[in-house]
Amino acid sequence: MILRRIIGRVLPRTLKDRLKYLKKKLDLSKYRKKQRRIVEEIRLKHHVNVMIIASSMGMWRFDEFCRQVLKDSSFSLLVVIKPFLSYIESEQENETKRLTHYLSGSNIPFVVVDNGDNAFRLIKQRFKPDLIFYPQPYGGAYGDETDWSSNMDCLLCYLPYSLHLTSLNWCINTDYHNLAWRQYQPSKLHAEESAKKTVCKGDNVVIAGEPRHDDFQTPAVGAPWNKLDDGLVRKKLIWAPHFQIMGDQVMNRMDFLRISGLMIKIAEMYSDSLQIAFKPHPRLKTSLYRHQEWGKKKTDEYYAMWASMKNTQLEEGDYVDLFKTSDALIHNCGSFTGEYLYLKKPVAYVTMDVESIKAPMHEFGKRCVDSHYIVSDDKEIIAFIEDVVIGGNDTMREFRQGIYDMQMVPPNNSSVAENIVNDIRKSLIE
């Protein structure tokens, strides 16, 4: 401890960072050796037990992967439902209900982890996972033995929970990114960014494609929009605000606070020509509960308003079919900036400072933003709705198609799920 304090005072910052980097490289080298031993043990049994941690319905991206695994006798599968510790208690309960309902209907084997001592450990002892997929790469997401750092006796895999558009450390260079056995990244550009900016130099990256590509290639299974029996034809618009509404947060997307009232007025103004789905980020309610000017009562009333108006609805679960059957999206979310482009439909980004949004992004992320109609105030939002959504004057259609053709098609003429399963088979079974 004394030596560490002396080094901290004497060494320049750049040298301290270098020593920290070298330590991470040494730890990584040791762990890669351990991973190779685990790989050899799995190969001997010619069978892979795959566990997926599921924490949020909005972040669930494994439908096609589960279908591929369940039809292959070389695999066993178990999904473990465990909501994030950062969610308020009611949201943890809601996410558990949503995931339970969805997985039951999809015939995907699952178990719910309660909050008792050793609950996850007992599940792990029974199932004996070889691979564990985590929905996010951040440490301390669960606060117990479910955390990835407690399960490094398995091969850890990462399939990004969203289509990341930046190369900042929090989304590309965490300990999990570096220590994972595999990162299944969406494109060559993402692989190149990992090779440049991670401690592991991207040695664990396999280019598989973006899972939402698989999801959006098939027709909608359900009918997510409320049926309105009044004979009117309405355009279907989704409004999806982000959760980081505080001025001191990483991305500072406070636009919800500016336009929350406007969006209610728009629903009322265009009740005969628009049907609007309010699709908040799963953590927005938590943020609003903690906001000084909102709190629980105002937040609950606002959500209830969207659930009860004639031409609106509240959507807090899976959004794949909602996206497929929509006509347009207006939002300020990171993941939707890329994901909605798979549908090639009109999309608007709400921001008062688009350059600050684009500043941390890599080239692909900037192109995704440029594929949007940028709207900053009431007048521009209404113009997007009247001219593009209702009027059909979509002047950016060809630009969006170009981005899709250039960056968003999965490799190997295969689905994303097939690319992942084929890599696991090749690495661990065949």
Helix content: 40-55%
> Judging from the principal axes of the Cα atoms, what is the shape?
globular
How many strands, which pairing sense, and closed or not: the largest β-sheet? 7 strands, parallel
Question: Compute the gyration radius: what is it?
Answer: 23 Å
Quick check: average pLDDT? Answer: 90
Q: How are the strands of the biggest sheet laid out side by side?
A: 3-2-1-4-5-6-7
Characterise this structure.
With 430 residues, this protein is α/β, with parallel strands linked by helices. Helices cover 46% and strands 13% of the residues. It has 19 helices and 13 strands. It has helices at 2-10, 13-45, 63-70, 89-105, 119-127, 169-172, 175-179, 188-197, 211-215, 255-269, 284-289, 295-308, 320-324, 334-339, 354-358, 363-370, 378-390, 397-407, 416-428, and strands at residues 48-54, 75-81, 110-112, 131-134, 155-158, 182-185, 205-207, 235-240, 274-278, 312-314, 328-331, 347-350, 373-375. The strands form two sheets. A seven-stranded parallel sheet has the order 3-2-1-4-5-6-7. Helix 14 links the parallel strand 11 (328-331) and strand 12. Helix 3 (63-70) packs across helix 19 (416-428). The protein is globular, with a radius of gyration of 23 Å. The protein starts with a helix and ends with a helix. Mean pLDDT is 90; it is low at 1-11.
